[in-house]
UniProtKB/TrEMBL annotation, chain B:
Keyword rRNA-binding: no
Gene3D superfamilies: P-loop containing nucleotide triphosphate hydrolases (3.40.50.300)
Family: Belongs to the ABC transporter superfamily.
Name of this protein: ABC-2 type transport system ATP-binding protein
Top-rank taxon, per record: Bacteria
Automatic annotation (TrEMBL), chain C:
Organism phylogeny: Bacteria, Bacillati, Actinomycetota, Actinomycetes, Kitasatosporales
This protein's record includes keyword Transmembrane: yes
Keywords carried by this UniProt record: Membrane, Transmembrane, Transmembrane helix
Pfam families per UniProt: ABC2_membrane_2
Residue ranges of the TM segments: 20-41, 53-74, 95-122, 128-151, 158-180, 206-226
Transmembrane helix keyword on record: yes
Organism annotation: Streptomyces achromogenes
Official protein name in the record: ABC-2 type transport system permease protein
PANTHER family: INTEGRAL MEMBRANE PROTEIN-RELATED (PTHR37305), MEMBRANE PROTEIN (PTHR37305:SF1)
Length: 302, 303, 239
């Protein structure tokens, strides 16, 4: 191999690189709030597959349709038979449709957070003006909003249909309002739990499986125990058992304070005192999920 | 068990042809499989290792097929590119497990670990290893059963210069012992320093094989370039350009030399000393300036 | 047919800290619930049978089967470290069979043992219920481990599919749709339990002979097919 002699520059030359093209950006920057809003809207749209591939639109849209169709049918039946009342209370609808809601959370919570974890792009977020809290708030709010859309849409269908069927306005509006509060709490709770579980693993499949497992098993265990308690006539404990699963927790709160009829066996909902505990546990879980998420994302690094 | 034959092998994935009618024979010694990223090197190595079936063609080791033939692994050692190993094991446990899967014992494992100089860290979990240490443990696991064919997929990835030198020494030793060592790389310096014989794969096709200097000679459609320094450059230039074997001469004032483009390599090499003697010019430096692997490679890739 | 090194590697991978925690959570939950129920209701045979059938056999055993079965091979294929098993002069069916043994053993320990304990807590093995359900758990462990090992070998989303099967098919359809019950591992194992318990508390929709044949057939076929699939497993580059 030849050894080349180094090139010697002619003397008296000054080496320079001229600044002819690179321009830094000096214009207005939109700041943290804008970034947070953008992350929120992108996550929210992503939860319904908007802005993503066609395949990812199928499941959320399908679930949305599935949850709205029975409401539409009920409304049609009520109008046709000139019924005095809707067959199902506003507050009961979400409880009946809990499988659809669980499936939605299970599929969209991992979709929202696990890609960032798997491909280690989270540090890219945090090397920009947004903070950990912004990221968590945006994702939490987005999933909760998506769930709220999912659960409130059928209630809207029921409300509009009820008005069309000329049912009592004040009555229906009150029921609708109660239903909305209830599903708002449900959305926050499910979003929190779903995100905490999904952010524990970078693998989407595990996240989906874990969320389904936790939601289903907790509900299965609680309802089995409640059935046994009822069969054994120790009805006092039915309300306490209901604290241990997200769906029954929401059910308890709404039957204590939102005028719903309890879905617990024997129709025995929590008393006012127990209801307060329910509310505290519900809010506590939401706050705990938020706290856990913040802790989780503080530990993320390169 | 030392000759790997790849015979008219193609592999496609749907519409994408990853390997296109490649035929080559890999014999004892160190062979470098060279190619840009996405050229099909990994696909080829996976086929050589029996982890992927060719869509057409056959891959055989001394006549025995490699696909769906578990016994052939007695003679093949594989160092995969992917980093994942059993992270929860210590280095020693990992190599011992590999030895046991070959029907060997802890002694063979110890020997292999000594060969790659990983004894000092053998009792730490693999999860705590650096990239270079992982590569060496992978090497140990491939060597533990003394295979006659070693396949290494991008083995120098992530190694620091000292580890790279050590690995090169090790591979050279393996080649000298008569084993067949095939490694893939897209880093030319590594291949240049280590391989006796290179196989160049570009866009799935087998572009060239052999010693890279000889490959350069075969490329007659590109003029050979030389750097010549002499006692009288201009006179030499005038004499050389008169002959049809040169196609261009550049006087490089900065270098103080001539850059000669020779289209007829053979004729030029006899011409140059004769011309110099006839004109009484003393030749100081004559060196080929594009016989590096890099230039050979860029010609092949650009073709 | 059985390789101790493969078994050791599989066992250590399966019972790594995180997976062991998850595997242990469900049995603990079952036992906790059993204690609560015993406290609430006293010893009652019907309750015990319902709980063991509904919670243990229908939910816990399939989920443990999914985790152990897919976990015995899925992560290795996913991150590519299975190459270290495939590049050895080892018959692929041997690898599958060894992993199956480990998966079965883990499933049995984490599902049958807690079922026995829960059964004794619930009604002290009155009418042989605890033992019957434990036998059912043992038997279904084998079939589940084989099925989910196969799933882990062929599919990258084995955990999701497995859980859908376990929670939707077994727990939901299996209890609701009569036709589906003949195709349910749970019902087959209940047939065996029925034989052990005698009496009427433990029932199954499937006869004993049919159940045994199906259990054996499913296990053997799944294991054989997984072995064949592993022979032609393609290792692509980094994805």
């Amino acid at each position: 191999m030849a050894v080349e002699h180094p090139v010697t520059a002619p003397s008296g030359d000054q080496t320079r690189i001229h600044n002819i093209g690179y321009r830094s950006y000096d214009g207005p920057r939109l700041g943290r709030a804008y970034a947070r809003r953008s992350l929120y809207s992108q996550s929210l749209r992503g939860a319904y597959g908007l802005g993503r591939s066609v395949k990812s639109k199928v499941l959320p849209m399908l679930l949305f349709v599935v949850i709205c169709v029975p409401a539409a049918i009920m409304v049609a039946v009520a109008v046709a038979t000139k019924a005095k009342e809707l067959p199902v209370d506003y507050t009961r609808y979400a409880i009946i449709m809990q499988a659809v809601i669980s499936l939605y959370v299970a599929s969209q919570a991992p979709q929202s957070v696990s890609r960032d974890l798997r491909f280690k792009t989270v540090p890219l977020y945090f090397s920009r003006p947004i903070e950990t809290a912004d990221y968590v708030r945006a994702k939490f709010a987005a999933l909760a909003s998506a769930l709220f859309v999912l659960t409130a849409a059928p209630l809207l269908v029921l409300y509009v249909g009820a008005l069309l069927a000329k049912l009592d306005f004040a009555d229906q509006t009150e029921g609708f309002g109660q239903g909305l509060v209830s599903v708002a709490l449900l959305s926050l709770l499910f979003a929190g739990i779903g995100l905490v579980i999904a952010s524990a693993t970078p693998r989407r499949g595990f996240g989906i499986a874990a969320v389904i497992a936790v939601l289903t098993i907790s509900y299965g265990a609680v309802s089995t125990l409640q059935a046994i308690a009822e069969a054994q006539n120790s009805t006092g404990s039915i309300a306490w058992i209901g604290l241990f699963s997200p769906v029954t927790l929401v059910d308890g709160v709404q039957s204590a304070f939102l005028g719903a009829t309890s879905a617990f066996p024997g129709g025995i909902g929590p008393t006012n005192g127990e209801g307060v505990v329910y509310v505290l546990v519900l809010l506590g879980l939401i706050a705990a999920s938020y706290g856990l998420l913040i802790r989780r994302y503080r530990k993320v690094g390169l | 068990m030392t000759t790997l034959s790849i015979d008219h092998v193609s592999r496609w994935f749907g519409n994408v042809v990853a390997v296109n009618d490649v035929t080559m024979t890999i014999g004892p010694g160190v062979t470098g499989l060279l190619g840009p990223n996405g050229a099909g090197k990994s696909t080829l190595i996976n086929m050589m290792g029996g982890f992927l079936a060719p869509s057409t063609g056959t891959v055989t080791l001394d006549g025995q097929p490699v696909w769906r033939n578990e016994d052939i692994y007695r003679h093949i050692g594989v160092v995969p590119e992917r980093e994942a190993m059993y992270d929860f094991l210590t280095g020693r446990e990992f190599v011992v497990a590999n030895a046991e899967l070959h029907g060997l014992g802890a002694k063979a494992a110890q020997k292999a670990l000594a060969t790659v100089e990983m004894e000092y860290a053998q009792d730490r979990k693999i999860a705590t290893y650096s990239k270079g240490m992982r590569q060496r443990v992978k090497m140990a696991s491939a060597l533990v059963h003394d295979p006659s064919l070693l396949l290494l997929d991008e083995p120098f990835n992530g190694m620091d210069p000292r580890q790279r030198m050590q690995l090169m020494d090790l591979l050279r030793r393996m080649g000298d012992e008569g084993r067949t060592v095939l490694f893939s790389s897209h880093i030319l310096e590594e291949v240049e320093q280590l391989a006796w014989h290179i196989e160049v794969v570009v866009a799935g096709r087998h572009a060239a094989s052999g010693d890279f200097r000889k490959i350069r000679r075969l490329m007659t459609d590109r003029p050979h370039r030389y750097l010549v320094r002499s006692s009288d450059d201009r006179a030499l230039a005038a004499a050389l350009i008169a002959d049809p074997s040169t196609s261009g001469i550049e006087v490089d004032l900065a270098e103080g030399a001539l850059r000669v483009q020779a289209v007829d390599f053979g004729r030029f090499t006899t011409l140059l000393p004769k011309v110099a003697r006839d004109h009484g010019i003393r030749l100081l430096t004559v060196s080929p300036s594009d016989e590096s692997l890099e230039s050979v490679f860029s010609y092949l890739v650009a073709a | 047919m059985y390789d101790p090194t493969v078994a050791r590697l599989t066992y250590r991978a399966l019972l790594g800290k995180r997976r062991a925690l998850i595997l242990g959570a469900l049995p603990l939950l079952l036992i906790a619930i059993s204690v609560v129920v015993r406290g609430l209701a006293g010893a009652d045979d019907q309750t015990a049978s319902d709980l063991l059938g509904g919670l243990a056999l229908a939910t816990m055993v399939p989920i443990i089967g999914v985790i152990a079965g897919t976990g015995a091979i899925g992560p290795e294929i996913d991150d590519g470290s299975v190459v270290y098993l495939l590049s050895k002069p080892l018959k692929r069916p041997t690898i599958i069979f060894t992993k199956l043994i480990v998966a079965i053993a883990v499933t049995m320990v984490f599902s049958a043992l807690p079922t026995l304990i829960a059964g004794f807590i619930l009604n002290g093995n009155g009418q042989q219920i605890a033992v019957a359900y434990t036998v059912a758990a043992l038997v279904s462990s084998i079939a589940y481990a084989a099925l989910f090992l196969l799933l882990g070998t062929v599919s990258r989303h084995a955990v999701v599919f497995g859980l859908v099967y376990a929670l939707v098919w077994e727990a939901l359809f299996g209890s609701l749709v009569p036709g589906a019950r003949t195709l349910s591992v749970q019902q087959w194992s209940l047939a065996v339990a029925h034989k052990v318990a005698g009496g009427d508390l433990v029932t199954s929709d499937v006869g004993l002979t049919t159940a045994t044949v199906l259990l054996v057939a499913v296990t053997v076929l799944a294991t054989w097919y997984a072995g064949q699939k592993l022979r032609t497993l393609t290792l692509a580059g980094e994805e």
